[in-house]
Amino acid sequence: MASFSVPSPVPSPVEDAESLKKAFHGWGTDEKAVISVLAHRDAAHRQQIQQAYEDLYKENFIKRLESEISGDFERAVYRWIFSSVEREAIIAKSAFGKVINYRVIIETSCINSPNELLAVKQAYHARYKHSLEEDVASHTSGDFRKLLVGLVSTYRYDGDEVDARLAAVEAKTLHDVIKRKPLESEEAIRILTTRSKAQLKAIFNKYKDEHKISISKDLETEHPDEFASALRIVVRCISSPQRYFEKLLRVVLTKSNLDEDTLTRVIVTRAEKDLQVMKEMYEKRTNVSLEKAISNETSGHYKSFLLALVRN
Amino acid sequence: MASFSVPSPVPSPVEDAESLKKAFHGWGTDEKAVISVLAHRDAAHRQQIQQAYEDLYKENFIKRLESEISGDFERAVYRWIFSSVEREAIIAKSAFGKVINYRVIIETSCINSPNELLAVKQAYHARYKHSLEEDVASHTSGDFRKLLVGLVSTYRYDGDEVDARLAAVEAKTLHDVIKRKPLESEEAIRILTTRSKAQLKAIFNKYKDEHKISISKDLETEHPDEFASALRIVVRCISSPQRYFEKLLRVVLTKSNLDEDTLTRVIVTRAEKDLQVMKEMYEKRTNVSLEKAISNETSGHYKSFLLALVRN
């Protein structure tokens, strides 16, 4: 269920394109008008508006939009206007800065279904003329490379079938490698990058049943290093994307320096999917509504835009 | 161009199904009749015959066929009757014996295009209820695992664009790692498992230009071990599948113990694709026709079946 509201009846794409052209007109931009259109249309509508705009005004809609707005607001709108698949490809590409943002790569590869990930990789090929695998491999080395390249490459089986015997064997394998110092990465990477999500959930459950501690907690306790922290993100993204994102929102919204990129990413990628559920989880957990928390930490058009996506 | 002949006009699927039913009838099987139908129909026809047979006689065609014939002949027909994608999935699964047949896994992953490999992996999921990645990973370890899991997982970019500067850098990287003893596998695996085929061909060409020796030859000279031999198969499958298969046929057909599985695999997988080209290459190279060589080394219905696929 989408977390944002769409007016009923929704204006035609041509009407919306005209409103946006008017908002762009002259010196300065009417950002409120931009938000009132774009933050209240679903992906299909946004696509149609873009098409109608380009047919009517013979100019590239996205380039014009980028020239009209700026800063965090621009970056958020730029992510939002694309379809989910295109957006994920753009976000994955943005992970390759001076240092790779491995969290983004793990989210892309572990939260999407196998066929969604495939579609993202196809969009990545079309857009950047090379593969996501190449970019991940050439920005990493050692265990991080093995883990991240494995995660983005794999085409997991997507069925529900679970092999309980094998889950028990591999829960034990994971426990054994986690108890070694340093952690023995090879088998952990093999299991996490090749098994189906249903099988992995069975493994994680078996782990908790046997050892009275979740694998994520055990990793945290035994290994304070960054590689173990990446493994924990994998486990959490596969176990429960919603709990993962809800916690990420809590962390982002309570740090003294706001990480706008992460906040934007969670809101724009989930607004059309399950942000509504996370809002409820967030408020239950913190006694503050997500809307209120975002409102406290952000400002300007960026704030108005995020709130428009969160409020329904 | 197919290497086998299809009669014109081709009988209807119902006529063919009736001929096969007649061939199966009573004690013993008329193998000649089976060959005269199945070895002279393309994939679409074979599919239609199977359907017509099952509609007419309410029995599973493939099971019946398997019960009627045996040995190498059965195994060859069993591979042949499927579509190319299904067949590749079945062949990949057959690679996991007591020891993994890594050559088969390299062929599947490096000779198919990225989208063909994807289709094979989808057929593998549907047929075996788990992924090819899982099977490869759990049958291998160490460098072999990294290489083979990387090859089957990756979704390579399939465009023609080549980055010449990068090709030069990575040709040098490959040369450096090959000159180390033991060979430094990590960068070799990264390059071979992630770059596009067009880019890899540019890298191999650059390697030869710079060092006056092909990378395949250099690997052979510097490293007499099995891992280097696997890397050479990767290089050769990507550089030229036809030269690779033609040489494999030469090796198989001159060894004292015939490897029927490999011979069958090359003939049935290429008969509908490029076997005609390999036949010409083979005869040019050996002064013996492929038909004659197969005829000398095989016997019985197996021989008749292979010859029917090779002769046009």
Automatic annotation (TrEMBL), chains A, B:
SMART domains per UniProt: ANX
MF GO annotations: calcium ion binding; calcium-dependent phospholipid binding; phosphatidylserine binding
Classification via Pfam families: Annexin
Protein name per Swiss-Prot or TrEMBL: Annexin-like protein RJ4
Lineage of origin: Eukaryota, Viridiplantae, Streptophyta, Embryophyta, Tracheophyta
GO cellular component term, pick one: plasma membrane
GO BP, one annotated term: response to heat
UniProt keyword annotations, A-Z: Annexin, Calcium, Calcium/phospholipid-binding, Metal-binding, Repeat
Sequence positions that bind Ca(2+) 1: 24, 26, 28, 68
Binding site for Ca(2+) 3: 298
